[in-house]
Structure formats: C-alpha cells, structure tokens
Amino acid sequence: MAHPAPHPAILCSFADADSIVESLAAFVVQAQKESIDKKGRFTVALSGGSLPKMLRGLIGNPAVKWDKWHVFYVDERVVPLDHPDSNHFSCTNHLFSKVAIPQNQIHALDTTLLDDLEELADAYEKELIREFAQKDAARFPVFDLVLLGMGPDGHTASLFPGHDLLAEDDRWIAFLDDSPKPPPKRITFTFPVLNHAARVVFVAAGKEKVDTLRQVLDDPEAGLPASRVRPVFPGQLYWFVDDAASAAVQYPRTPFKL
Ligand SMILES: O=C(O)[C@H](O)[C@@H](O)[C@H](O)[C@H](O)COP(=O)(O)O
C-alpha cells in the first residue's frame, strides 16, 4: 500500500523574534494538551542554540503540566553537563531551573561515558528505547513534539551539509567527532527519528538566516539538512520564523492559529 504523501510544511512568520515567543508557547501548550488527553504524557525533544530562550513563554504559565513532560535532546555536545557548550546546561539555565519539572524526566547524557562516543550514543539510544519501544513497538520513536533550530549553513540537530550522517537510516542516535561547528564531538538524532515525530517545529529568526531559509523552503531539492526534515504522514512540520528571516521566501505563509 502506498504511504500518503507528507503534509506540506506550515510557515508562520512573525514581526520579530519576541513576537514568536507567545505563539510558540501557545502552540506547545496545545500540543501538550492533545498528547496528555491521548496518552497521559508529553514527549518532547529540544535543541540548543537560541531555542531554550525562545521557550520563555512557558515559564510561569499555569497551563503547562511539567510533571507530564518527558524531555530528550535532539543533539548534544559531548561535554560535561555544567559546561557552557552543553545543550542540557542551556536548557537548564533558561528553562528547567525556573519550572517544576521532575529531574528524572529530563534525559541528559550519561557523563560516565564521555570518553567513548560510540558507547555514549548507544546509551542514549537505549534511553529512547526504554521510553518508546516497549510502548508501541515502533521501528522509530514517535515524539509528540520536536523543536529544532537551523544554523546559517542549513544544519539542524548535528546533521551538517555534506556529512555522511545525512544518509543514516537505521540508528536512532548517531555520533560524530568531526562537527564543522565546534565542539567537534556530538551525538544527534538521525533523520528517521526527526521524521517520525507527530509535530516538528523549526524556530528561526534574524536576517542572517534569510538566504538559507529561502533555499530550504523554496529549493528543497538542493538538499540542505533542514530541507530533509519532512515528517512522514500524519506528522506535521511547522516553521516559526520572523519577517527578517523570511524576507526572501516565496513559500506561502499561513497566519498563526491554534
Ligand atoms: O552548534 C550547533 O549545532 C548550533 O548551535 C545549533 O545547535 C543551533 O541550534 C543552530 O545553529 C541554530 O542556532 P540559533 O537558534 O541560535 O540560530
């Protein structure tokens, strides 16, 4: 049987980065509600970069049921958890230290394995398997929500242009020691994991992203990593961007609504 085609991406463009914050929070709360109503929990994957700060609209928001959140990192730099390069450190600083989320529901790297990349990636994959596989026996985990950023080179997670990992179609978690952006050692979700999520949201703001965003949305055949995020049916991809980033994009915008 043929698989239904993926839903087209929904592009929402806001006046500026600050204006993204409130709508992003409303979107996350709605996704959380639908997930909890369905299965009593909310599985979320977070990125680093500016994303943790962009989630500030969730802080102090009584609609957020933090005790139902189960958080993983889309990618992580292989550094101690209190290192400024750590995505866990950034998410803790900007978000988790300010809300009542159970610590054991935040899945960080096993720092006893920092010297062995392969073991580290395997251990993180096992954490994901513990969370997902026994429940629905799926070939790939189905996150309720994956939140991504995009680098000026079009990378997302730690999936960089031209890298061998773009072709990884089996593992859930991969590792690399040659990231073109420091630090070189990282682990990352693979495309099949990103592309099996129920909802994937890219958040991108600023005029430095203008050329890349145009290419990703208007010329996806060029194959930049961010263009390869196309959740399989019935997953839905969203882009929450600001007008500076989307200034050159032809792809149709959709007014934000829940
Ligand atoms: O080292 C990295 O891989 C980057 O820091 C990455 O994690 C970041 O999410 C993107 O580059 C987007 O960054 P901004 O969200 O800050 O634009």
Helix/strand class: alpha/beta
Strand order of the largest sheet: 1-9-8-5-2-3
Q: What integer value in Å does the Rg equal?
A: 17 Å
Helix tally equals 7
- Poorly predicted parts: none
H/E order of the elements?
EHEHEEHHEEEHEHEH
> What is the general shape?
globular
Mean pLDDT reading: 96
Report the end-to-end length measured between terminal Cα atoms.
32 Å
Q: Biggest sheet: strands, sense, closure? A: 6 strands, parallel
What's the total count of β strands? Answer: 9
Write structural notes for this entry.
Helices cover 28% and strands 17% of the residues. The chain is an alpha/beta fold. The strands form two sheets. The chain has a six-stranded parallel beta sheet. The longest helix is centred in the N-terminal third of the chain and has 23 residues, at 17-39. It is globular and about 45 Å long. The two termini are 32 Å apart. The model has no long low-confidence stretch (mean pLDDT 96). It binds 6-phosphogluconic acid.
Summary, kept brief:
The chain has 258 residues and is of the alpha/beta class. It has helices spanning 17-39, 51-54, 87-94, 117-136, 191-194, 210-218, 243-246, and strands at 10-14, 42-46, 69-73, 75-77, 145-148, 173-176, 186-189, 199-204, 236-242.
What descriptors fit this protein?
7 helices, alpha/beta
